[in-house]
Amino acid sequence: KEEASVGDEQQARGATISETSAPLISRFCYRIGAHTLLLEATLTAEVLTTQTIHALPFAPDWCAGLVSLRGDLFPVMDMHKVVLGKPAPHQTQLLLIQHPQFSPIILTCDGFPRQLKLSDADLTEYTPENLPSWIPHTLQHNGQTLLAADHGRLLRQIRQTTNR
Questions:
Q1: Which residues contact 147 (CB under 8 A, 6 or more apart)?
Q2: CA 137 to CA 109: how far, in whole Å?
Q3: CA gap 147, 130 in Å, rounded
Q4: Would the CA dihedral through 69, 74, 80, 86 be positive or negative?
Q5: Each residue of 11-62: pLDDT tens digit?
Q6: Element holding 80 (H helix, E strand)
């Protein structure tokens, strides 16, 4: 029995060592109010500075307007309206995202996106019932809740509701 408990203890220590040496994954996140949304690894994102949002008459609720960037026009998604149900109360940062299956779109966000170093050992998946369908689950990381967003699903939903 003593040999088994020593072996079990060594296994437990080995598991702890392998968990702490788990590879770190860099992911970016951005804030909307008190919420932190995690960007998918498949997205390309660019922070935009000093861009003017031009109002668009009769635009859907989610659309804050258009931005002219390098000769192209991009719609601006008011993420405060999408996430919190009310327009952004102040000037926000702009984040151009490019999803592999959709045209580029600009998102509003609070502050600049930041990089997180995540490991599987640090993350605990949790799925509350009251999340919108484009946020399939949340993750707990260092005491902070991250909303693991599926921006492709969000863009699909917006396209479906806009085309009606």
A1: 35, 36, 37, 38, 131, 135, 138
A2: 20
A3: 12
A4: positive
A5: 443 443 344 456 778 889 999 998 999 999 888 899 998 788 998 999 998 9
A6: helix 79-84
pLDDT tens, residue by residue, 77-126: 999 999 998 887 777 899 999 999 999 999 999 988 889 888 776 666 76
Question: Is the Cβ–Cβ distance between 63 and 75 less than 8 Å?
Answer: yes
Q: How many CA atoms lie within 13 A of 18 on its CB side?
A: 6
CA distances from 55 to 25, 52, 58, 62, 74 (A): 38, 9, 9, 12, 12
Residue 29's CB is within 10 A of a number of other CB atoms, namely 21
